[in-house]
Amino acid sequence: MIRVAVLGSTGSIGRSTLEVISRHPDRFEVAALVTNRRVGALVEQVGRFRPPVAVVAEAALPSDPGGPTRWDTGRDAVLEVAAGQDVDVVVNALVGAAGLEPTLAALQAGNRLALANKESLVAGGPLVLQAAGRGRADVVPIDSEHSAILQCLEGYDRASVQGITLTASGGPFRGRNHNQLRHVRPSEALNHPTWDMGAKITIDSATLANKALEVVEAHYLYGFGYDHIHAVVHPQSIVHSFVEFVDGSVLAQMGFPTMELPILYALSYPERVEDGALRTYDPVMASPLTFEAIDHDAFPLFGMGVEAGRRGGCAPAVYNAGNEIAVQAFLEGKVLFPDMAEVVHATLDGVGNHDVHTVDDVLAADAAARRLAREAVDRLGRAEETGKSA
Ligand code: MG
User: Fold this and answer.
1) Which regions of 36-170 does DSSP assign to beta strands (E)?
2) What's the pTM value of the predicted model, to 2 decimals?
3) How far is the CA of 223 from the centre of ligand 1 (A)?
4) Cystine design at 146: which of 40, 141, 176, 368 (Cβ 3.0–4.6 Å)?
5) Based on the domain organization, do 197 and 249 belong to the same domain?
6) Could you tell me the distance, in angstroms and rounded to a whole number, from the CA of residue 205 to the centre of ligand 1?
7) What is the 70 CA–ligand 1 centroid distance (Å)?
8) Range of 319's domain?
9) What spacing in Å lies between the alpha carbon of 143 and ligand 1's midpoint?
């Protein structure tokens, strides 16, 4: 039996993880469930899966949940679950930079980490690598692109790999230019053509910031330099990524888009498990497969994020924090779609770069970035108001 702790169990990846687990009761059992604030949803999940532990990170506990589950609250309780000795796999599906400390706690305890929280690798990459080495734990990605790369790399040593290419759906605004993007609404941006995901990552897919985060994530996961990591737009989301070898041969991992596949692989890795609920691949149904270059003018957050990755130090953490604030401001109607890139640009400019040695270094950069990003949001929001009344 593989005992799975699910951090962020009430979000999109968390719910899919529980669906996968529920189809394989002979193989997986739920060791703990953690939500940030969705207490009602967590009570339902606890009733269904009966885990030994349930944690609400940032809200009050239900008054009288009943049942055998032990309830706990607060960020320390989340870290305790991540480092738990009666856990085999920790699924980290928390949203944003808040996922970093649970990631480190799981790895230091030697628990396998099934990582959907890409921000923890982006913001604290060097710390995550250190913790993974120290605890001798695996990091297995729950991200379709990185899962694809892991699958294509199986059995090859890194010296035989020339480079990797991540695919991007291009999001709902593929083909639009910078001007056409000025007045797109959050509701349009949330309407993703191929993937059904949470709000933050759906906006990141529309701006292509998500792909930049994934490039940085791939850099830390697989150790490739930035010159060897590429990205290409592939609107059908069937090819999840490519690995090119030194002899020019290319492997791709394919399948109809569903997060349940990378989730199942991360839980069972390196084994493969039969799952009849997952849709059988049909090349005729999936055709045609097309590919195009990223439009850097329309989607500047992509290049900005990769550049932050190249700069290293705390730059990726600053990019990530600035982006989190920008996305939130866009969803709240405070800034326009192209303003998100302005916010992140101003944030990267304003926070000086320094090295990352401790979690505190990351948290300090993160806090400074959020402050600057909020200022940029206020500035841009006000400019927008003035523009409207003029
Ligand atoms: Mg992805």
Assistant:
1) 53-56, 70-73, 89-92, 112-115, 139-141, 161-168
2) 0.94
3) 18
4) 141
5) yes
6) 9
7) 34
8) 312-389
9) 5
The total number of structural domains in the chain stands at 3
List for the chain the helix, strand, coil content (%; round to 5): 50, 15, 35
Reported as a single tens digit per residue, the pLDDT across 68-79 is 999 999 999 999
Ligand 1 center to residue 118 CA distance, Å?
9
Query: Residue 107's domain is classified under what CATH number?
Result: 3.40.50.720
**Domain with 350 in it: what CATH number?**
1.10.1740.10
Retrieve residue 166's tokens: 């991540």
User: pLDDT (tens digit, 9 = 90+) per residue, 250-274?
Assistant: 999 999 999 999 999 999 999 999 9
Contact 369, 326 (CB under 8 A): no
Interval between CA 241 and ligand 1 midpoint (Å)? 10
**324 half-sphere exposure, CB direction, 13 A CA radius:** 19
| pLDDT category of residue 237 using cuts at 50, 70 and 90 | very high
User: Nearest 5 degrees, angle CA 123-CA 96-CA 65?
Assistant: 135
Q: For residue 311, which of 158, 127, 122, 164 has the smallest C-alpha distance?
A: 122
Q: For residue 52, how far is its CA from the centre of ligand 1 (angstroms)? A: 31
11-25, 122-136, 172-186: which range is least confident on average? Answer: 122-136
- 19 C-alpha to center of ligand 1: Å? 19
